[in-house]
Protein backbone atom coordinates (compact mmCIF):
# COMPACT_ATOMS: atom_id res chain seq x y z
CA UNK A 1 0.00 0.00 0.00
CA UNK A 2 1.38 3.37 -0.97
CA UNK A 3 1.37 6.34 1.28
CA UNK A 4 1.10 9.60 -0.46
CA UNK A 5 1.16 13.10 0.80
CA UNK A 6 -2.52 13.39 0.28
CA UNK A 7 -3.15 10.31 2.38
CA UNK A 8 -1.71 11.88 5.66
CA UNK A 9 -4.49 13.33 7.74
CA UNK A 10 -4.37 17.05 8.49
CA UNK A 11 -4.61 16.46 12.20
CA UNK A 12 -1.24 14.68 12.06
CA UNK A 13 0.39 17.88 10.84
CA UNK A 14 -1.13 19.76 13.74
CA UNK A 15 0.10 17.20 16.29
CA UNK A 16 3.60 17.27 14.81
CA UNK A 17 3.72 21.05 14.94
CA UNK A 18 2.58 21.07 18.56
CA UNK A 19 5.25 18.52 19.48
CA UNK A 20 7.97 20.58 17.79
CA UNK A 21 6.92 23.73 19.64
CA UNK A 22 6.77 21.83 22.96
CA UNK A 23 10.27 20.41 22.64
CA UNK A 24 11.70 23.79 21.59
CA UNK A 25 10.03 25.51 24.61
CA UNK A 26 11.22 22.77 26.94
CA UNK A 27 14.79 23.12 25.73
CA UNK A 28 14.63 26.93 26.22
CA UNK A 29 13.24 26.68 29.76
CA UNK A 30 15.77 24.05 30.71
CA UNK A 31 18.63 26.21 29.43
CA UNK A 32 17.32 29.26 31.28
CA UNK A 33 16.89 27.34 34.55
CA UNK A 34 20.36 25.87 34.16
CA UNK A 35 21.74 29.41 33.85
CA UNK A 36 19.89 30.50 36.96
CA UNK A 37 21.12 27.48 38.87
CA UNK A 38 24.72 28.48 38.14
CA UNK A 39 24.21 32.04 39.51
CA UNK A 40 24.87 32.55 43.24
CA UNK A 41 21.84 33.72 45.26
CA UNK A 42 21.44 37.37 46.21
CA UNK A 43 22.29 37.80 49.89
CA UNK A 44 20.28 40.18 52.09
CA UNK A 45 22.55 42.40 54.25
CA UNK A 46 22.23 45.47 56.43
CA UNK A 47 24.43 48.38 55.39
CA UNK A 48 25.41 51.80 56.73
CA UNK A 49 27.09 54.83 55.26
CA UNK A 50 30.61 55.86 56.26
CA UNK A 51 30.23 59.15 58.17
CA UNK A 52 32.86 61.76 58.96
CA UNK A 53 33.04 63.98 62.02
CA UNK A 54 35.45 65.24 64.67
CA UNK A 55 35.96 62.74 67.49
CA UNK A 56 38.15 62.68 70.62
CA UNK A 57 41.37 60.79 71.14
CA UNK A 58 40.99 59.45 74.67
CA UNK A 59 41.74 56.97 77.41
CA UNK A 60 38.97 55.51 79.59
CA UNK A 61 39.81 55.17 83.27
CA UNK A 62 38.13 54.60 86.63
CA UNK A 63 38.31 57.42 89.17
CA UNK A 64 36.85 58.89 92.33
CA UNK A 65 35.82 62.38 93.38
CA UNK A 66 37.37 64.46 96.16
CA UNK A 67 36.28 67.69 97.80
CA UNK A 68 37.79 70.79 96.22
CA UNK A 69 38.33 72.26 99.71
CA UNK A 70 38.08 70.70 103.16
CA UNK A 71 38.07 72.95 106.24
CA UNK A 72 37.86 71.81 109.85
CA UNK A 73 36.23 74.56 111.90
CA UNK A 74 37.87 75.04 115.32
CA UNK A 75 37.37 77.54 118.11
CA UNK A 76 40.08 80.20 118.40
CA UNK A 77 38.92 81.52 121.78
CA UNK A 78 37.67 79.70 124.85
CA UNK A 79 34.09 79.92 125.99
CA UNK A 80 30.65 78.43 125.97
CA UNK A 81 28.75 77.90 122.72
CA UNK A 82 25.56 79.91 122.93
CA UNK A 83 24.02 79.02 119.59
CA UNK A 84 24.40 76.92 116.45
CA UNK A 85 23.22 78.58 113.24
CA UNK A 86 23.10 75.72 110.69
CA UNK A 87 21.57 72.32 110.05
CA UNK A 88 23.84 69.31 109.63
CA UNK A 89 24.45 68.66 105.94
CA UNK A 90 23.31 72.14 104.86
CA UNK A 91 24.95 74.19 102.13
CA UNK A 92 26.64 77.34 103.41
CA UNK A 93 28.27 80.33 101.79
CA UNK A 94 31.47 82.06 102.72
CA UNK A 95 30.76 84.38 105.66
CA UNK A 96 27.66 82.54 106.94
CA UNK A 97 27.48 82.39 110.74
CA UNK A 98 28.01 78.86 112.14
CA UNK A 99 28.47 79.16 115.92
CA UNK A 100 28.29 81.90 118.54
CA UNK A 101 30.62 81.64 121.55
CA UNK A 102 29.61 83.68 124.62
CA UNK A 103 31.05 87.10 123.68
CA UNK A 104 30.51 88.93 127.01
CA UNK A 105 34.01 88.42 128.49
CA UNK A 106 35.63 89.48 125.24
CA UNK A 107 33.31 92.42 124.80
CA UNK A 108 34.26 93.68 128.26
CA UNK A 109 37.96 93.26 127.47
CA UNK A 110 37.44 95.11 124.19
CA UNK A 111 35.72 98.06 125.86
CA UNK A 112 38.44 98.25 128.50
CA UNK A 113 41.15 98.21 125.84
CA UNK A 114 39.41 100.91 123.85
CA UNK A 115 39.05 103.07 126.95
CA UNK A 116 42.73 102.69 127.75
CA UNK A 117 43.60 103.60 124.17
CA UNK A 118 41.53 106.79 124.42
CA UNK A 119 43.19 107.70 127.73
CA UNK A 120 46.65 107.15 126.30
CA UNK A 121 45.78 109.31 123.28
CA UNK A 122 44.78 112.16 125.61
CA UNK A 123 47.98 111.71 127.64
CA UNK A 124 50.08 111.74 124.46
CA UNK A 125 48.46 114.97 123.27
CA UNK A 126 49.15 116.61 126.63
CA UNK A 127 52.75 115.44 126.66
CA UNK A 128 53.27 116.77 123.14
CA UNK A 129 52.06 120.22 124.26
CA UNK A 130 54.33 120.16 127.33
CA UNK A 131 57.28 119.09 125.29
CA UNK A 132 56.65 121.94 122.85
CA UNK A 133 57.09 124.35 125.82
CA UNK A 134 60.15 122.35 126.93
CA UNK A 135 58.49 121.46 130.21
CA UNK A 136 59.13 117.70 130.05
CA UNK A 137 62.02 115.66 128.81
CA UNK A 138 62.10 113.83 125.47
CA UNK A 139 62.00 110.51 127.34
CA UNK A 140 58.60 111.39 128.84
CA UNK A 141 57.20 112.08 125.36
CA UNK A 142 58.64 108.80 124.04
CA UNK A 143 57.01 106.89 126.90
CA UNK A 144 53.64 108.48 126.15
CA UNK A 145 53.93 107.56 122.46
CA UNK A 146 54.88 103.97 123.32
CA UNK A 147 51.96 103.65 125.72
CA UNK A 148 49.61 104.90 122.99
CA UNK A 149 50.84 102.33 120.46
CA UNK A 150 50.62 99.61 123.09
CA UNK A 151 47.03 100.42 124.03
CA UNK A 152 45.97 100.64 120.36
CA UNK A 153 47.48 97.19 119.72
CA UNK A 154 45.70 95.82 122.80
CA UNK A 155 42.42 97.22 121.52
CA UNK A 156 42.97 95.56 118.13
CA UNK A 157 43.76 92.21 119.79
CA UNK A 158 40.64 92.51 121.95
CA UNK A 159 38.61 93.22 118.77
CA UNK A 160 40.03 90.09 117.11
CA UNK A 161 39.15 87.93 120.09
CA UNK A 162 35.67 89.41 120.19
CA UNK A 163 35.21 88.67 116.48
CA UNK A 164 36.34 85.06 117.07
CA UNK A 165 33.22 84.59 119.19
CA UNK A 166 31.23 84.61 115.94
CA UNK A 167 32.51 81.63 113.96
CA UNK A 168 31.79 82.02 110.24
CA UNK A 169 32.27 79.76 107.24
CA UNK A 170 35.53 80.52 105.40
CA UNK A 171 34.37 78.86 102.15
CA UNK A 172 31.33 77.95 100.09
CA UNK A 173 30.49 74.33 100.76
CA UNK A 174 28.48 71.77 102.65
CA UNK A 175 28.76 71.22 106.40
CA UNK A 176 29.04 67.75 107.82
CA UNK A 177 27.79 66.35 111.11
CA UNK A 178 28.50 68.71 114.01
CA UNK A 179 30.69 67.52 116.87
CA UNK A 180 29.40 69.92 119.57
CA UNK A 181 26.10 71.42 120.63
CA UNK A 182 25.11 74.67 122.30
CA UNK A 183 26.22 74.69 125.93
CA UNK A 184 29.58 72.97 125.35
CA UNK A 185 32.79 74.68 126.44
CA UNK A 186 35.25 74.91 123.57
CA UNK A 187 38.68 76.35 123.08
CA UNK A 188 41.73 76.46 120.80
CA UNK A 189 43.26 73.08 119.97
CA UNK A 190 40.17 71.10 120.87
CA UNK A 191 37.98 68.85 118.77
CA UNK A 192 36.90 70.42 115.44
CA UNK A 193 33.40 71.81 115.76
CA UNK A 194 32.37 70.77 112.25
CA UNK A 195 33.91 70.05 108.83
CA UNK A 196 33.00 71.92 105.63
CA UNK A 197 33.72 70.53 102.18
CA UNK A 198 33.71 72.54 98.98
CA UNK A 199 31.73 70.66 96.31
CA UNK A 200 31.60 73.08 93.38
CA UNK A 201 33.89 72.60 91.63
CA UNK A 202 35.03 69.14 92.70
CA UNK A 203 38.18 67.13 92.05
CA UNK A 204 38.12 64.05 89.84
CA UNK A 205 41.05 61.79 90.75
CA UNK A 206 42.19 58.98 88.45
CA UNK A 207 45.32 57.15 87.34
CA UNK A 208 47.08 56.59 84.04
CA UNK A 209 48.76 53.24 83.39
CA UNK A 210 52.52 53.29 82.99
CA UNK A 211 52.14 51.70 79.54
CA UNK A 212 50.00 54.66 78.40
CA UNK A 213 52.30 57.33 79.80
CA UNK A 214 54.31 57.80 76.61
CA UNK A 215 51.10 58.20 74.61
CA UNK A 216 49.74 60.75 77.10
CA UNK A 217 52.92 62.80 77.23
CA UNK A 218 52.63 63.59 73.52
CA UNK A 219 49.49 65.59 74.22
CA UNK A 220 50.24 67.19 77.62
CA UNK A 221 49.99 70.94 77.40
CA UNK A 222 47.90 70.77 74.23
CA UNK A 223 44.84 72.97 73.74
CA UNK A 224 42.37 70.07 73.50
CA UNK A 225 43.28 68.13 76.63
CA UNK A 226 40.22 67.73 78.88
CA UNK A 227 38.81 65.31 81.45
CA UNK A 228 35.22 64.09 81.16
CA UNK A 229 33.60 62.73 84.32
CA UNK A 230 30.75 60.26 83.86
CA UNK A 231 28.33 58.57 86.20
CA UNK A 232 28.69 54.76 86.33
CA UNK A 233 24.90 54.40 86.02
CA UNK A 234 24.25 57.27 83.61
CA UNK A 235 22.29 59.23 86.22
CA UNK A 236 23.66 62.54 84.93
CA UNK A 237 25.13 63.85 81.71
CA UNK A 238 28.93 63.71 81.32
CA UNK A 239 30.60 66.91 82.49
CA UNK A 240 33.81 68.33 81.08
CA UNK A 241 36.60 69.56 83.33
CA UNK A 242 40.22 70.69 83.08
CA UNK A 243 43.31 68.68 83.91
CA UNK A 244 44.71 70.17 87.12
CA UNK A 245 47.61 67.90 88.00
CA UNK A 246 49.51 64.86 86.79
CA UNK A 247 52.19 63.35 88.98
CA UNK A 248 55.85 63.21 87.97
CA UNK A 249 56.46 59.78 89.50
CA UNK A 250 55.03 56.31 89.01
CA UNK A 251 53.46 54.79 92.12
CA UNK A 252 55.67 51.94 93.36
CA UNK A 253 54.05 48.55 92.97
CA UNK A 254 51.01 49.96 91.14
CA UNK A 255 52.51 50.91 87.79
CA UNK A 256 50.24 53.96 87.50
CA UNK A 257 50.56 57.74 87.62
CA UNK A 258 48.18 59.89 89.66
CA UNK A 259 46.16 62.58 87.87
CA UNK A 260 43.54 65.08 89.00
CA UNK A 261 40.98 67.23 87.19
CA UNK A 262 38.77 70.11 88.29
CA UNK A 263 35.15 69.33 87.37
CA UNK A 264 32.14 71.69 87.49
CA UNK A 265 29.54 70.45 89.98
CA UNK A 266 26.86 73.15 90.35
CA UNK A 267 24.08 70.63 91.08
CA UNK A 268 26.20 68.66 93.57
CA UNK A 269 25.54 65.45 91.65
CA UNK A 270 29.12 64.42 92.38
CA UNK A 271 30.12 63.67 95.98
CA UNK A 272 33.51 63.12 97.59
CA UNK A 273 34.69 59.47 97.44
CA UNK A 274 32.11 58.66 94.74
CA UNK A 275 33.42 56.30 92.06
CA UNK A 276 33.09 57.61 88.50
CA UNK A 277 34.04 56.73 84.96
CA UNK A 278 36.69 59.03 83.54
CA UNK A 279 37.40 59.80 79.90
CA UNK A 280 40.80 61.44 79.60
CA UNK A 281 40.49 63.40 76.34
CA UNK A 282 43.92 64.06 74.84
CA UNK A 283 43.09 65.61 71.47
CA UNK A 284 40.44 65.97 68.75
CA UNK A 285 40.68 63.91 65.57
CA UNK A 286 39.40 65.99 62.65
CA UNK A 287 37.13 64.48 59.96
CA UNK A 288 37.46 60.93 61.21
CA UNK A 289 35.75 58.18 59.21
CA UNK A 290 33.26 56.24 61.35
CA UNK A 291 31.36 52.98 60.81
CA UNK A 292 29.35 50.74 63.16
CA UNK A 293 31.82 48.58 65.04
CA UNK A 294 30.09 45.39 63.75
CA UNK A 295 31.20 46.27 60.24
CA UNK A 296 34.84 45.57 61.10
CA UNK A 297 35.61 41.85 60.76
CA UNK A 298 38.81 39.95 61.54
CA UNK A 299 40.45 37.33 59.33
CA UNK A 300 43.84 35.64 59.19
CA UNK A 301 45.05 38.56 57.10
CA UNK A 302 43.83 41.17 59.58
CA UNK A 303 40.80 43.48 59.90
CA UNK A 304 38.58 44.00 56.86
CA UNK A 305 35.24 45.50 55.81
CA UNK A 306 32.84 44.52 53.02
CA UNK A 307 32.03 47.58 50.91
CA UNK A 308 28.91 47.56 48.71
CA UNK A 309 29.65 48.80 45.18
CA UNK A 310 27.24 50.54 42.80
CA UNK A 311 26.27 47.24 41.11
CA UNK A 312 25.25 45.76 44.49
CA UNK A 313 28.25 43.46 44.68
CA UNK A 314 30.66 43.57 47.58
CA UNK A 315 34.35 44.32 47.74
CA UNK A 316 36.59 43.12 50.58
CA UNK A 317 38.75 45.98 51.90
CA UNK A 318 41.61 45.58 54.40
CA UNK A 319 41.27 48.39 56.93
CA UNK A 320 43.11 49.93 59.87
CA UNK A 321 40.60 50.36 62.73
CA UNK A 322 41.02 53.05 65.38
CA UNK A 323 39.30 53.87 68.65
CA UNK A 324 35.73 52.92 69.44
CA UNK A 325 33.49 55.95 69.97
CA UNK A 326 30.17 56.52 71.69
CA UNK A 327 27.09 55.14 69.94
CA UNK A 328 28.83 51.86 68.94
CA UNK A 329 30.88 53.60 66.25
CA UNK A 330 34.49 52.89 65.38
CA UNK A 331 37.11 55.04 63.72
CA UNK A 332 38.60 53.55 60.55
CA UNK A 333 41.93 55.18 59.77
CA UNK A 334 42.39 53.74 56.26
CA UNK A 335 40.74 51.45 53.70
CA UNK A 336 37.39 53.17 53.14
CA UNK A 337 36.13 56.49 51.86
CA UNK A 338 33.42 58.86 53.14
CA UNK A 339 29.83 58.07 52.02
CA UNK A 340 30.65 54.52 50.95
CA UNK A 341 28.21 51.83 52.08
CA UNK A 342 29.61 49.09 54.30
CA UNK A 343 28.05 45.81 55.37
CA UNK A 344 27.20 45.81 59.07
CA UNK A 345 25.57 42.37 59.45
CA UNK A 346 25.35 39.30 57.22
CA UNK A 347 29.09 39.00 56.44
CA UNK A 348 29.26 35.22 56.99
CA UNK A 349 27.56 34.47 53.67
CA UNK A 350 29.67 36.92 51.66
CA UNK A 351 32.73 36.71 49.45
CA UNK A 352 34.25 39.29 47.12
CA UNK A 353 31.88 39.78 44.17
CA UNK A 354 28.78 38.42 45.93
CA UNK A 355 25.60 40.19 44.89
CA UNK A 356 23.64 41.55 47.84
CA UNK A 357 20.28 43.06 48.66
CA UNK A 358 21.28 46.06 50.84
CA UNK A 359 18.92 47.19 53.57
CA UNK A 360 19.47 50.20 55.89
CA UNK A 361 20.98 49.37 59.27
CA UNK A 362 19.48 50.88 62.41
CA UNK A 363 21.77 50.92 65.41
CA UNK A 364 20.26 49.35 68.53
CA UNK A 365 19.20 51.54 71.40
CA UNK A 366 18.17 50.90 74.96
CA UNK A 367 14.48 51.04 74.12
CA UNK A 368 14.58 47.89 72.00
CA UNK A 369 17.19 46.09 74.09
CA UNK A 370 19.29 45.35 71.01
CA UNK A 371 16.53 43.46 69.19
CA UNK A 372 17.47 45.02 65.86
CA UNK A 373 21.00 43.76 66.14
CA UNK A 374 19.78 40.30 67.04
CA UNK A 375 17.48 40.26 64.05
CA UNK A 376 20.08 41.54 61.62
CA UNK A 377 22.77 39.16 62.90
CA UNK A 378 20.62 36.20 61.90
CA UNK A 379 20.93 37.09 58.25
Largest sheet: 6 strands, mixed
Task: Give the CA-CA distance, first to last residue.
Answer: 72 Å
Regions with little confidence, pLDDT below 50 for 5+ residues: 366-379
The percentage helix is 25-40%
The portion of residues forming beta strands comes to 35-45%
Number of helices: 5
Structural class: alpha+beta
Which overall shape is indicated by the principal axes computed on the Cα atoms? rod-shaped
Write down the secondary-structure element order: HEEEEEHHEEEEHEEEEEEEEEEEH
The total count of strands amounts to 20
- Please tell me the overall pLDDT: 86
What Rg do the Cα atoms give?
44 Å
Describe the structure.
The structure is a single chain. Helix 2 (104-132) runs antiparallel to helix 3. It contains 5 helices and 20 strands. Mean pLDDT is 86; it is low at 366-379. By secondary structure, it is α+β, with helices and mostly antiparallel strands. The strands form 3 sheets. Strands 1, 14, 15, 16, 19 and 20 form a 6-stranded mixed β-sheet that branches. It starts with 9 loop residues before the first helix and ends with a helix. Strand 14 (297-299) and strand 15 (302-308) form a beta hairpin.
